[in-house]
């Protein structure tokens, strides 16, 4: 079957005050070829030049139809519903005005849908951080290319993929079940729509092709609704959307409802907790909202969550206000999770959160070593090495017998990790282990260039620990002392190599490398840009 014989797709593009970007989105949809019979752009009563941009494009491209709303809906659901109502293609695909469809996306989705007679087809998506072009796969490993799921209840973990834009929907299926988005200013409308789709129990087919590029512009003057987390209202909206979605799924299948609540504990709760910040008023409001919602969860769902999520819930339940060591909790919510010292014990040596909050850390004594939230501190040891200290965790690492540690540099823009040589660990007087790990920044910069990293390179820094019993654990590093000082190093290859170690939002060590004068200038400009964005956000 060639492209001209494929069933047709209606691409629904929604736009509000996005004159500078909507043209690229529409063009990416039109570029899909004849499989896209029409692109329906819904202008949600924009006050900038969005309407003009769309009308000018429609005058040139007969496949583009523009719907102008006279009143702004306040959200994404209503304009998407308008697009569904205006669609005439056999299938519907959604696209936001600041994102793009990669070449061949519609073809790949339709071919898979037709091959498996699936009302819903899903493909791969990436979050592309701009301007760095750092691609982060969305829910990697959740979907298996070529897989066909006869009923969502057969794969309850599907509730974790809440996006609507990485999926193709048969229009007759949407019509038959009356599937629409929540109207008005309803944030996280995807949650509810996706829940309604899964509750309708469609066959779902999976293609391995990349079908959606989600652009993330954190420094934009107006960030997307889902990234606008400056006040607790965003978290309240997410909770309400999740509550609605969980109710829809539970009514259709108790299994799906339970999976949705477990997903909230393991994903949503941890994501927002690690971004909690230091504002006491925000922390207190967030804490109250979260406790009240989690208290509605069946105990069985909490027990089904991963250990780290259960410990967070236990601390939440133990105190009506954020504890003094709430930052420790944010580090436990990070990925990978880290439980910072000190480590307290209760009766009979049972691991507990702290002396002030003696909440039992259930199952910690039996967790596999690879799942332990270990902490590794790092401080400078000369110009080309770091001294690390691996903290024991209630005797669990001592049982495994740490032998070696190995630095790992992972490009934040995606790509293969660069590994240093393993170094032997030695016990220290504190009950942990220490080692001095050498590295060569010039070699790292060369490798980055070979991987296509130009100008400024950004690397996450981690450490892998191998134990005598055959187990191993990998985690990030906690920077200590003067490790975060910027350095300008002479380089025979680049003339100068500027190195800027920094602490990520999750408190982990990362590194920016700028080879040569051009790279150094780019790093300085990037730093000034982030500083200005930070002042503007404040």
TrEMBL record:
This is Glycosyltransferase 2-like domain-containing protein. Residues 10-137 form the Glycosyltransferase 2-like domain. Transmembrane segments: none annotated. It comes from the Bacteria. CDD domains: Glyco_tranf_GTA_type. InterPro entries: Glyco_trans_2-like, Nucleotide-diphossugar_trans.
């Amino acid at each position: 079957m060639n492209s001209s014989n494929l069933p047709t797709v209606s691409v629904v593009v929604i736009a509000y005050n996005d004159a500078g970007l909507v043209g690229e989105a529409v063009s990416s949809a039109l570029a899909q070829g004849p499989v896209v019979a029409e692109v329906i752009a819904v202008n949600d009563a924009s006050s900038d030049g969005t309407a003009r941009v769309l009308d000018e494009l429609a005058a040139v491209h007969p496949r583009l139809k523009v719907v102008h709303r006279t009143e702004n809906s306040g959200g994404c659901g209503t304009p998407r519903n308008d697009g569904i109502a205006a669609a005439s293609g056999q299938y519907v695909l959604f696209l936001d005005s600041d994102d793009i469809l990669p070449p061949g996306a519609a073809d790949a989705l339709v071919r898979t849908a037709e091959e498996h007679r699936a009302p819903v087809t899903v493909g791969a998506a990436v979050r592309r951080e701009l301007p760095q072009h750092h691609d982060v796969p969305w829910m990697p490993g959740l979907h298996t290319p070529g897989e066909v799921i006869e009923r969502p209840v057969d794969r309850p973990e599907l509730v974790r993929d809440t996006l609507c834009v990485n999926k193709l929907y048969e229009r007759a299926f949407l019509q038959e079940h009356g599937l629409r988005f929540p109207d008005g200013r309803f944030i996280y409308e995807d949650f509810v729509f996706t829940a309604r789709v899964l509750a309708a129990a469609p066959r779902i087919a999976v293609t391995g092709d990349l079908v959606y590029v989600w652009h993330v512009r954190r420094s934009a003057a107006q960030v997307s609704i889902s990234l606008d987390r400056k006040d607790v209202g965003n978290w309240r909206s997410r909770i309400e959307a999740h509550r609605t979605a969980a109710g829809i799924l539970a009514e259709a299948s108790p299994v799906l409802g339970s999976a949705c609540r477990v997903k909230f504990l393991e994903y949503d709760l941890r994501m927002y907790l690690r971004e909690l910040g230091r504002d006491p008023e925000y922390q207190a409001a967030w804490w109250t909202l979260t406790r009240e919602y989690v208290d509605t969860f069946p105990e069985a769902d909490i027990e089904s969550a991963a250990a780290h999520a259960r410990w967070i819930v236990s601390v939440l339940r133990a105190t009506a206000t954020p504890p003094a060591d709430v930052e420790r909790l944010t580090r436990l919510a990070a990925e990978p999770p880290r439980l910072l010292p000190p480590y307290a014990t209760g009766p009979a040596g049972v691991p507990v959160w702290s002396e002030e909050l003696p909440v039992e850390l259930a199952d910690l004594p039996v967790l596999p070593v690879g799942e332990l939230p270990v902490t590794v501190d790092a401080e400078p040891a000369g110009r080309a090495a770091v001294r690390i200290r691996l903290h024991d965790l209630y005797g669990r690492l001592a049982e495994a017998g740490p032998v070696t540690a190995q630095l790992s540099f992972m490009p934040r823009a995606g790509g293969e990790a660069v590994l240093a040589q393993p170094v032997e660990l030695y016990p220290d007087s504190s009950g942990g282990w220490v080692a001095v790990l050498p590295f060569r920044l010039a070699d790292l910069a060369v490798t980055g260039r070979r991987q296509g990293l130009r100008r400024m390179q950004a690397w996450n820094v981690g450490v892998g620990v191998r134990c005598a019993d055959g187990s191993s654990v990998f985690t990030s590093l906690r920077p200590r002392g003067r490790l975060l000082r910027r350095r300008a190093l002479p380089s025979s290859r680049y003339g100068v190599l500027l190195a800027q170690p920094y602490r990520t939002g999750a408190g982990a060590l990362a590194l920016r490398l700028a080879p040569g004068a051009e790279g150094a200038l780019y790093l300085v400009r990037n730093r000034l840009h982030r500083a200005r964005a930070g002042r503007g956000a404040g």
